Amino acid sequence: MSTAPVNPASVSSSTSASDAETLRRGRILSSKLYFDVPLTKVPIIYSSSYDIAFLGMEKLHPFDSSKWGRICRFLILDGALEKNHIVEPLEASKDDLLVVHSESYLNSLKTSLNVAVIIEVPPVALLPNCLVQQKVLYPFRKQVGGTILAAKLAKERGWAINVGGGFHHCSAGKGGGFCAYADISLCIHYAFIRLNISRVMIIDLDAHQGNGHELDFSNDRRVYILDMYNPGIYPSDFEARRYIDQKVEVVSGTTTNEYLTKLDEALKVAGRMFDPELVVYNAGTDILDGDPLGRLKISPEGVTSRDEKVFRFAREKKIPLIMLTSGGYMKSSAKVIADSIVNLSRKCLIDTGSSHSRG
Ligand SMILES: [Zn+2]
């Protein structure tokens, strides 16, 4: 192994695996994303720059691209959260992103056409890249910073919610399905090094298969993946399916009771098979009845019980848990997510410092 200082600019395809690991470690240790959060703050992470809205482009997309801000506004209106208790993350820098992504993948995002394909908004291809960086990729990089910080906060407080993130279709070398950066893979690599953790469980309950993290941790025994998804919709990634430790397929039209019964069973199996030190919960709400992409029929109350089950699973085992909001961009999604967070607080599974959790 080389003992010379590693210069990122000189890295070539001939870099050995151990040099790459040394470089990754160096980047993680020098990152600014893990900053100390005062105890006056609640481990709910959000920045107003998460929300994507510009030139009316957001109206061309079937997504509610300001759901993240709306979730927080509902929580504040409900009295569940005080605005100045929210944690604002830093933007993931290029060096942070290089922990998982290749230089060539990051360079590909400098072409607006590539970003347009990833986020599925064709007119974005026509915009100058500086605008795409500022209005689309910067919000995503803030959300990535939030997911990475969430693991540190969860280790300290037992739980953390990033009101964003969960870009589970993006892997080290490829974006897609509205996911430009692999925040889950990044978060886990940071946790390995900075939190001295060696066993992570991903519970991916978004309606879509989480092919990004599955490809990234394909042969990594430190990560156990429970993925419950509709096999009849995007991304139909059969290679990535081989890397799921516990695959639970829920076909189009699956209703609330059937879904929750399958989840109970899946959590029992996961608890027997693996003893994690961190749970990464990808809590997409595209399982909701009426979601045009997810095609499942889960009620809003079903989403609340789903989230409660996962939080109880982690709480009973005393495992730190991070929740990411992931997919689900119907107008109703933000309220459903906020209601579920309020329920977690009422059930004392989280403490948001509000009257709900004190009462
Ligand atoms: Zn999804």
Report mean pLDDT, rounded to a whole number.
93
Give the helix/strand class.
Answer: alpha/beta
Outline type? globular
* Hetero groups: zinc ion
In the predicted model, the low-confidence regions spanning at least 5 consecutive residues are 1-6
Order of helices and strands: HEHHHHHEHEHEHEHEHEHH
DSSP helix fraction: 40-55%
Arrangement of strands in the largest sheet: 1-2-7-6-3-4-5
Topology, number of strands: 7
Number of domains: 1
Q: Which architecture does the CATH hierarchy give at level 2?
A: 3-Layer(aba) Sandwich
Secondary structure tally, helices: 13
**Largest sheet, described in full?**
7 strands, parallel
Beta-strand percentage range: 5-15%
Which class in CATH terms? Alpha Beta
End-to-end Cα distance: 58 Å
CATH topology tier name: Arginase, Chain A
Please identify the oligomeric state: single chain
Organism: Vitis vinifera
Subcellular location: Nucleus
Catalytic activity: N(6)-acetyl-L-lysyl-[histone] + H2O = L-lysyl-[histone] + acetate
Cofactor: Zn(2+)
